[in-house]
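Re: the request from the purification team.
They wanted to know what the chain is likely to look like in 3D before they choose a buffer screen. I agreed to run a prediction and write the result into the notebook, where they can find it.
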Amino acid sequence: MVAIPSASSTQKRRLIQRVEESGLPVKILPGLVELVDGKAAISDIREVDVADLLGRDPVPPDAKLFARNITGKVVLVTGAGGSIGSELCRQILSQHPSELVLLDHSEFALYSVDHELQPVAHGTRIVACLGSVLDEALLRDVMTGHRVQTVYHAAAYKHVPLVEHNMQQGLRNNVFGTLAVARRRGRSRGRDLRADLDGQGGPSDERDGNVKRVAELVMQAAALRPGARTCFSMVRFGNVLGSSGSVVPLFRRQIRNGGPITITHPDIIRYFMLIPEAAQLVIQAGAMAQGAKSSCSTWVSRCASWIWPVR
């Protein structure tokens, strides 16, 4: 039983590694303050969590960056019902936007996040919109009707093997969904934050990495559109512990079943972060962005002419 709640993540990780050598199950005890305040009970003794194994202390966000594009604004989150999309919504809500619009094509996922957020809205109007990012007419109605000022695009398929076996749908959702959001946002005024929430492609998921790269090129082309008033930005990061598609639940099942553990590639190095850290990184990266016009290639510039034809 690990009963040192004051220990840092690094200290907990080292301790857990030592006690696991005994071959016995390891449990984590809630903190004394939580027990005294009644926020936790002895019955809340839990399994070792992924956060306990992060290997470092969580990185706190910059409060000034956090509020810059959210406080008092109308914010849209696509893929709001996903693991990272829903955490984005929680983080955004903490910065008191005037309105938070949730968009997801999964009815249950949208219901779940809306049902969770409504009781803690504290004056922020929350609107749940059911539909796909591939529906440009819906995007137009949502962005125009609600006068959206900031968009966080988190709608994407993330299960690499599944997307590789369903490449047509993966391309359609991840690339053309991004294109639809960029097109629609590019035709309206305001500031748009594009968040590429997938980790970088490794040696054996090159096709998935290519899909992500095309989505990024779409955003760069959007920034080059003549007369564009929107600031497009994007951010990449590594594996998100506990997210939809994370390798950790798979590894845990394989270990429970006695192995073997399957790895993507023997030479791959994974860099992990927590779901709240990922959402905070997206918000902060968007707040720091100045646009991508200066870094776009000539090829991307040419793409802009056929992605956004002159009308």
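For the purification team: The radius of gyration is 21 Å.
Please add any questions underneath this entry.
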